[in-house]
Design goal:
By secondary structure, the protein is of the alpha/beta class. The protein has two domains: 236 residues, Aldolase class I (TIM Barrel), CATH 3.20.20; 66 residues. Strands 1-2-4-5-6-7-8-9 form an eight-stranded parallel β-barrel, surrounded by five helices. Helix 5 packs parallel to helix 7, helix 8 packs parallel to helix 9 and helix 12 runs antiparallel to helix 16. The longest helix has 18 residues.
Amino acid sequence: MINFWQQRARDHKPFLVLAPMDGVTDYVFRELIADIAKPDVMFTEFTNTEALCSRGYEKTIPRFRYSAKQQPIVAHIWGTEPKNFFTVAKLAKDLGFDGIDINMGCPVRDVMKMGCGSALIKNPGLAAAMITAVKEGAPGLPVSVKTRLGVKSIVTDSWIRFLLLQHVDAITIHGRTAKELSKVPAHWDEIGIAVKLRDTLSPDTVIIGNGGIVRRDQAAVVHESYGVDGVMIGTGIFHNPWVFEKTPREHSKKEMLDLLLAHAKQYEECYPGEHRFAAMRKYFKIYVRSFSGATTLMKELMETKNFSEVEALIRPHLE
């Protein structure tokens, strides 16, 4: 029986994925994107397995909130202890997730110091134990890995070969090393090498390419050029929240500002309180740009403490 990854690869060439971005792709943002231009697959934010297996459970479990319209949705997890991956995998299956994704690509220094994220590229034994734990904790649920090409240098042949031999259902490859962050163009030729390795070692594994793609037409090009089954878009969503539209078009100032109001309203309803609303400010740059008065409006919005204040600033621009 084929899993949802394989189904997406058969039905959409390429299929498109919204990248997991910590502090960005939360429940409210995913709801908004699902309403206006839904990707083929969504991921949760980074969710720590240790936190879910400790007194941090109540604070962390909201990261696993999702709605039916966000499906298929994958639980994106990270951590240090395989036993906790087993427990969280069981939880994710019980919650009805469509798949589980293990982060082996985060380049944040503090995460790597813990032996997590991209640090796992240099610890294949632990990486394998995590994959096994997830498979055992959620039998029958697709297991995937999100990773990079290496830590300081590119090690596509050895690292991606290793992951393919674990027979995971999908691998998302960010085409840069951890050291490179996002400061250089993505090495799509290396992702193409990974696809050829897949064809030989694990033909059923779905390959998703990631790095520097901000438009749907670019996704089509890398699919044709490098053979990836899917393309993940991350920061492209900041340039255009409608990036996953099947027929791309220009969006008006009014559409942008109406969407900002919808986002801010849902955000306040989901996360009540002035302290929580402050985190909404990071989204304003998505909507307020490239029109007369945008700079002044942006400065004013950064001082807002609730939806009412945001609405009071936006309404005059809609008249």
